[in-house]
Amino acid sequence: MYQLYNKMDNHTYNKFILITSVQQIGRKLQELENFGINLNNSDIEDDFIFLKDHISGPLIKGCTVPQYSILKLNGMKFEAQNKANNCCGVKNKRIVIIENICCNKDIKDYVIVDKEFMNKKPLYSLPYSSSYLGIFEVSKLSHRNMWPVKCIMLKYYLFPIPENNSKFAAFPLLHIEQEERPQLYCIIIEFNDGLQLIPHNWILSKQL
What we know:
51% strand; four-stranded antiparallel sheet; single chain; 2 domains; six-stranded antiparallel β-barrel
């Protein structure tokens, strides 16, 4: 069974298409090439919505009220202390867990109080690094820090890795900025020794 990991519209979301043969994969990839995938996100409004105020913390130096549990921006929803919605990618390709959303009096801006994953590596490295899809294995949280909310780049979802409960597979749920990512598609193929990523141009050039 083959699975195609792709991006389909202006808001760019991740979708898996089940495909049964290499020929079908090639035809589907050619359709995507002809369609012209658009990674331009300029039509997404750069706005911030803060919801569900509270006084529960946690806070770090310089941080103060108002505090919020929910942040909405660029079509993404984040919720502190909610495992389904509390992971995001910020500038410099860092992946963090949001613990609070509040104001910082020192920088006079809204921030997230977070913990960063200190260990980050591609979830798969052969035949193509999963980092090109923004997919990583992450572990070991740092001490609390903060980032301005305007530094949030994308949303992640964490899947526990069965062999080690302290490690997670981090998958991006929305867009990756165009300059951060090559314009390619990868096929996720299940071999006897596990899943592997195959660059789409290998299929189109009949190298498989």
